[in-house]
């Protein structure tokens, strides 16, 4: 029956189009068909009920079981998917204005800066049918039109989620209603038409097919732009032909399903246990989701049938995913999403195509921020530098390498309120408040709605030896779940203030409090990260790169550093409706560039503790310059050269000239240090220091012949001075080498152990050699400018000057100043 339905739906294309076009074109560039469902879970087994997805995708492609959305609600998640940026970087954080929806996407300037536009710039035709964003309506669909599409047929609000009364808008034409027709079937016809257009154009293409299933059915009185739109939620509606399926299926009775004891934090831990009537309804809701997905499954089969008929399947990537996950009864929650638990953030991702590993399932961590970079990478298009994600590995060799090299974390964030989507939604008392209303209540009238706010920042981290979820809510309650022993997230290991309430719990043989220190520091970086810092956040905490995983960070040598780092923790000042940086507590690296703390930091210190960019809280802003760990090195460099430069430049000068030199050097010293420390401007510091060293060396070597006319005496002093220059230059070269190989040397030192390991501490050695050079400069300049130079003066100085003078100079003899 299902195959017959697919054949009937395809009939208009396989008879009319294919007969006219064979043989079909061949292109060197691959195509993409992206199927994006709405609210499809990965944890509740929905894929088990989709045989065509299994046949065409799971059996022929790679299933990424640890794929996550980063904001578990429709519009923010979709914007992240299309831009490759986390929601805190797009500032589209809600489904409705003023903080989300299509109007916010436009006002943020994203309509000209997202994947479809980039694909067209790279020579691809782009097509889209189905749901794009929330509040993309019959009123604003052309204000402006979504950019970047060669052809489109969008679902529009307020009819997007009405399974039997959808409205589509094609290209630049007016919207058209399809009352009484099933939404996914209409979508299928439009998808087949767009695929036919794409093939006819004989250019590489990217086609997105975005059905609403298995989202709940929504009747909306208003467009979402109204001040108080009315919403009516009910279970998804399947196609008539699927209504009878799965009569005995129930929501999986996992330990987290309607548990006897409350779980979670914030408002979730206050939920009452559902009664039998509520549970029965949730089972019905779950069955309706599975039934609604059957038309999507048929749509998948239809697309593959066409790709085969067009003879382009082998040159086409087919990607299947969902915008976010879904819960039905877990943690006593009514049907919905928006939480940080596994049901809501873990979503399907399956990829099939050229070179993609077949019939493979992998647990490497991937996220929606990775999808835009992945699409560009698959199509051979250069990546953008501002992505918050990285391309997903898809060949067998890449996947194998990723198990050791790929990041293990997921940044999870949410703002606003959780909305129940069933008929028993009394647990979410604020879901009926429009975003604008809530915004006014909180920001203007200062009404405290924090008890119901769902705003949080969270971290999901999966390694080979650990599996954790850590979150901080806007009321500053904390959660930590060890999902190796507690996969259903029922036993929070932290008290409300974030301290361990299970002191005996051990992770990687490390006390829980130390694990929390690392997790919180990592979340502090991630909660406002940008670009590659989001991909490699440990580098912000450990700039030399020796820490890339939680396991690395738990090394005992970093305990002291993380104890210091935890003077600042992730916290909120207010439960806001949207993303307001000023209420989101301390920010990592505020006012500085990530990684600048590499400068001047000894490698040996990295073995004991690692620096972090200063945390700017109100009582610490003024102390930030003092907290810079590279101050001692850089300040000492100029404190050495500036007095020496003054001494050598003012030698035998007039009083007026000496005064002028002192004033000029004092002003230059102040400017250089202030500019460098306040603005992190390294070039000025480096150039002025190098210039000072050059002037000191050349000026000193010129004065020596004038002040020491005796050839033997002059030779001795010159040799000592040249040795000092050589020692300083050698120390500088060792410093350069140390900057590049510090990470490797850490491992080498651990491997060989003491005492040999001491020889590999290059940072200590470059300090030794530059210190010798600096001391020789001070000693020689003091001798030749003081007028007290005697033959035994060098012999009375500290080692190694007497030895150097003896080895490089003439025999000892009485010496008088000429």
Question: What would a concise description of this structure say?
Answer:
The chain is an alpha/beta fold and 818 residues long. It is built from 27 helices and 20 strands.
Structural summary, described in words:
The chain is α/β, with parallel strands linked by helices and 818 residues long. The strands form five sheets. It has a ten-stranded mixed β-sheet, sandwiched between helices. Strands 15-16-17-18 form a four-stranded antiparallel β-sheet, covered by helices on one side. The longest helix has 42 residues, at 711-752. It is elongated, with a radius of gyration of 33 Å. It is a multi-pass membrane protein. Its cofactor is Zn(2+).
Strand content: 5-15%
Low-pLDDT stretches are 18-26, 426-451, 591-631, 811-818
CATH superfamily of the largest domain: Alkaline Phosphatase, subunit A
The CATH class of the largest domain is identified as: Alpha Beta
Radius of gyration: 33 Å
Estimate nothing, just give the exact number of structural domains.
3
Secondary structure layout:
Layout: H1 2-16, H2 18-21, E1 31-37, H3 51-58, E2 62-64, E3 67-68, H4 74-83, H5 87-90, H6 101-107, H7 115-121, E4 125-130, E5 151-155, E6 165-170, E7 176-179, H8 183-201, E8 205-210, E9 217-221, E10 230-234, H9 276-309, E11 316-322, H10 342-345, E12 349-352, E13 360-362, E14 366-367, H11 371-378, H12 396-405, E15 409-414, H13 435-444, E16 456-462, E17 467-473, E18 478-482, E19 506-507, E20 510-511, H14 512-526, H15 532-535, H16 538-541, H17 550-553, H18 559-565, H19 603-608, H20 624-627, H21 631-649, H22 655-679, H23 682-707, H24 711-752, H25 756-759, H26 762-786, H27 801-808
Helix pairs in contact: 1-9, 3-9, 8-9, 14-18, 21-22, 21-23, 21-26, 22-23, 23-24, 23-26, 24-26, 24-27
């Amino acid at each position: 029956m299902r195959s017959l339905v697919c054949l009937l739906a395809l009939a208009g294309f396989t008879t009319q189009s294919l007969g006219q076009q064979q043989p079909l074109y061949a292109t060197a560039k691959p195509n993409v068909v992206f199927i994006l469902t709405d609210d499809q879970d990965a944890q509740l087994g929905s894929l088990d009920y989709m045989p065509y997805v299994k046949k065409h995708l799971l059996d022929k492609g790679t299933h990424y079981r640890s794929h996550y959305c980063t904001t578990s609600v429709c519009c923010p998640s979709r914007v992240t998917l299309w831009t490759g940026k986390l929601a805190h970087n797009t500032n589209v954080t809600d489904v409705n204005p003023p903080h989300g929806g299509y109007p916010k996407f436009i006002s943020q300037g994203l309509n000209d800066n997202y994947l479809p536009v980039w694909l067209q710039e790279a020579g691809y035709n782009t097509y889209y049918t189905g749901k794009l964003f929330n509040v993309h309506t019959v009123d604003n669909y052309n204000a402006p039109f979504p950019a970047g599409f060669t052809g489109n047929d969008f679902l529009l609000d307020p009819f997007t989620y009405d399974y039997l009364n959808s409205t589509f808008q094609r290209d630049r034409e007016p919207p058209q209603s399809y009352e009484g027709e099933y939404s996914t079937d209409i979508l299928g016809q439009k998808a087949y038409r767009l695929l036919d257009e794409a093939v006819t154009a004989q250019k590489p293409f990217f086609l997105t097919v975005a059905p609403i299933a298995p989202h709940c059915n929504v009747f909306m009185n208003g467009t979402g732009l109204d001040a108080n739109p009315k919403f009516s939620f009910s279970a998804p509606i399947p196609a008539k032909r699927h209504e009878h399926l799965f009569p005995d299926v129930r929501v999986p009775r996992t330990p987290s399903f309607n548990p006897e004891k409350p779980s979670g934090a914030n408002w979730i831990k206050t939920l009452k246990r559902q009664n039998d009537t509520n549970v029965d309804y949730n089972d019905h809701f779950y069955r309706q989701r599975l039934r609604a997905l059957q038309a999507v499954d048929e749509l998948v089969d239809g697309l593959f049938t066409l790709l085969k008929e067009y003879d382009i399947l082998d040159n086409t990537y087919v990607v299947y995913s969902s915008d976010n996950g879904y819960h039905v009864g877990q943690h006593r929650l009514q049907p919905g999403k928006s939480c940080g638990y596994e049901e809501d953030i873990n979503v399907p991702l399956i990829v099939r195509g050229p070179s993609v590993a077949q019939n493979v399932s992998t647990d490497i961590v991937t996220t929606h921020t990775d999808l835009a970079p992945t699409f560009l990478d698959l199509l051979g298009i250069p990546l953008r530098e501002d992505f918050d994600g990285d391309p997903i590995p898809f060949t067998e060799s890449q996947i194998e390498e990723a198990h050791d090299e790929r990041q293990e974390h997921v940044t999870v964030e949410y703002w606003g309120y959780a909305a129940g989507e069933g008929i028993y939604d009394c647990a979410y008392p604020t879901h009926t408040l429009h975003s604008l209303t809530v915004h006014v209540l909180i920001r203007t009238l200062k009404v405290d709605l924090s008890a119901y706010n769902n705003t949080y920042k969270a971290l999901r981290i999966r390694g080979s030896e650990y599996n954790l979820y850590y979150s901080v809510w806007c009321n500053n309650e904390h959660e930590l779940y060890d999902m190796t022993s507690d996969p259903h997230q029922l036993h929070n290991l932290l008290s409300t203030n974030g301290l361990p309430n299970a002191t005996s719990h051990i992770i990687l043989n490390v006390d829980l409090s130390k694990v929390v220190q690392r997790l919180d520091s990592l979340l502090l970086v991630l909660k406002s990260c940008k670009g590659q810092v989001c991909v490699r956040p440990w580098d912000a905490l450990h700039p030399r790169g020796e820490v890339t995983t939680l396991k690395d960070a738990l090394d005992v040598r970093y305990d002291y550093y993380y104890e210091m780092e935890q003077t600042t923790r992730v916290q909120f000042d207010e439960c806001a409706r949207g993303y307001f940086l000023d209420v989101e507590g301390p920010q990592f690296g505020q006012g500085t560039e990530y990684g600048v703390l590499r400068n001047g930091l000894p490698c040996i210190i990295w073995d004991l503790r690692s620096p972090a960019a200063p945390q700017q809280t109100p009582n610490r802003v003024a102390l930030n310059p003092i907290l810079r760990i590279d101050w001692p090195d850089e300040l000492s460099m100029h404190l050495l050269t500036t007095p020496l430069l003054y001494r050598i430049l003012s030698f035998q000068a007039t009083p007026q000239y000496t005064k002028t030199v002192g004033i000029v050097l004092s002003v230059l010293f102040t400017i250089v240090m202030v500019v460098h420390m306040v603005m992190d401007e390294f070039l000025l510091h480096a150039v002025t220091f190098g210039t000072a060293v050059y002037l000191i060396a050349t000026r000193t070597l010129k004065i020596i012949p004038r002040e020491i006319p005796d050839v033997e005496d002059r030779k001795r002093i010159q040799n000592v001075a040249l040795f000092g220059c050589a020692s300083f230059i050698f120390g500088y070269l060792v410093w350069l080498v140390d900057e590049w190989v510090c990470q490797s040397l850490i491992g080498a030192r651990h491997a060989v152990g003491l005492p040999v390991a001491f020889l590999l501490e290059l940072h200590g050695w470059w300090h030794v050699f530059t210190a010798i050079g600096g001391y020789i400069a001070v000693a020689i300049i003091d001798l030749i400018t003081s007028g007290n130079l005697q033959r035994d003066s060098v012999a009375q100085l500290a080692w190694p000057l007497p030895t150097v003078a003896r080895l490089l100079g003439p025999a000892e003899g009485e010496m008088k100043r000429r």
